[in-house]
Amino acid sequence: MQSIDRITPDDLPAFARGCGVLGTGGGGSVDSGLLAAAHALAEYGDVPVVPLDRIAADGLVLPLSGIGAPTVSHEMPMSGEEPVLIAAEVERIFGRPVSAVMASEIGGSNGVGAVAWAARLGLPLVDADGMGRAFPEVQMVSQNVAGLPVNLIVLADVQGNLTTLRPVDGPWSEAIARAVTVACGGSALMADYVLTGAELRGAVVEGSVSSALRIGRTVAESGEPVKALVELLQATTLLTGKVVDVERRTGGGFVRGSLILDGTGADRGRMLRVEIQNENLVAFEDGRVRACVPDLITVVDVETADAVSTESLRYGQRVTVLSWPCDPLWRTPRGLEIAGPRAFGYDLDYTPVEHLR
User: Fold this and answer.
1) d(CA 197, CA 59)
2) What are the residue boundaries of the S-Me-THD-like C-terminal domain, all occurrences included (predicted)?
């Protein structure tokens, strides 16, 4: 796959569309991230995109993501100064400048937002992320799968509050960072796993920025966008139908609930239920699993193939539900321990989506 060397204003619509698809319903709606990125590029210029091997061995990489319930972040947008506060604190702690920004998760608004944060800081964006998708909890990142320590977490909120954490492990990083986020009103910007280029090699999903842009361009250029997306991702079509019920509640820093679809056309007479915790976690049909985390499950518009985020689901929408394989690191024993179905409380073993029919 051909990589890119910069993100320009012309790239943003396709990039945002690709991030939406990779968001598996979460990571925040790309609409707000797209507006922030467009504003930042207009004010600060294009953002260079660099592969991880171009980062100096001792160069500090700043992974950034929004944390909290997507429904809250959509209604309470960031001020734009959060990355400045976080970068200044990280540089104070480490005693040297940050070399680059990286999206902690490429999915949803967090993928698009990384462009805005890099532009605001005048730094390049690493062509990589910590998930290859979106996950709802802090410890669910590839750096944790690789066994790297959670050396530092820094959070900033729209009010200007800055919080620095030194959690002992991944689960504690989630518990404490989530509590701080709830205290901040349910949404904040977070840096976690602030590590060097050398430490991150082999511990992140590389090429994910280029991948998101490729997905968006493929969909935009096709006369049959859903078909093109299925072919590009080698995805399984779980169901095409109408949204007939959405149950959604916000609490504890998450959006939780479920989605029920009634099949149409060739899928008439079938129903699919998708369980949600910020992201789409498990899809059931007639009590059997059709797909589950860590594989990706995304709901897309049946006509445009635009991803429909969990906070945007509405009765009557005509959609197709797709699922495709996650990055291989998530299928390792350590990856499944951190982000497999049992990590979310489901009493079921993981089966790759391509083996579920």
Assistant:
1) 6
2) 171-353
Residues 276-319 have pLDDT tens digits of 988 999 999 999 999 999 999 999 999 999 999 988 899 999 99
Q: Specify whether the backbone of 75 is left (phi greater than 0), alpha (psi in -120 to 50) or beta.
A: alpha
At the top level of CATH, the class of 6-208 is: alpha beta
Pairing of β 195-196 and β 162-165: unpaired
Helix, strand or coil, per DSSP, at residue 216: helix
Distance of alpha carbon 42 from alpha carbon 40, whole angstroms: 5
Helix runs in 45-189, H state only: 70-75, 82-94, 109-121, 142-145, 170-183
Q: How many CB atoms lie within 10 A of CB 247?
A: 11
Identify each DSSP E strand in 18-118 by its residue range: 47-50, 60-68, 98-103
Type of residue found at 36: A
Which residues, 6 or more positions from 191, have their beta carbon under 8 angstroms from its beta carbon? 62, 63, 64, 86, 90, 152, 153, 154, 155
CA angle 130, 26, 32 (to 5 degrees): 100
- CA dihedral of 114, 305, 249, 285, whole degrees rounded to 10: -130
Report residue 21's pLDDT band, with 50, 70 and 90 as the boundaries. very high
The residues near 344 (Cβ < 8 Å, ≥ 6 apart) are: 277, 281, 282, 293
- Residues 50-77: tens digit of each pLDDT: 999 999 999 999 999 999 866 556 566 6
Which of 109, 195, 96 is CA-nearest to residue 147? 195
**Which residues lie across from 67 on neighbouring strands?**
188
**d(C-alpha 26, C-alpha 281), whole Å:** 10
Strand partners, 318: 242
What are the pLDDT digits (tens) for 180-205?
A: 999 998 889 999 999 999 999 999 99
CA–CA distances in Å: residue 16 to residues 37, 121, 205: 10, 20, 18
Domain boundaries, the chain: 6-208, 223-355
CATH number of 223-355: 2.40.390.10
Residue 329 bridge partners (DSSP): none
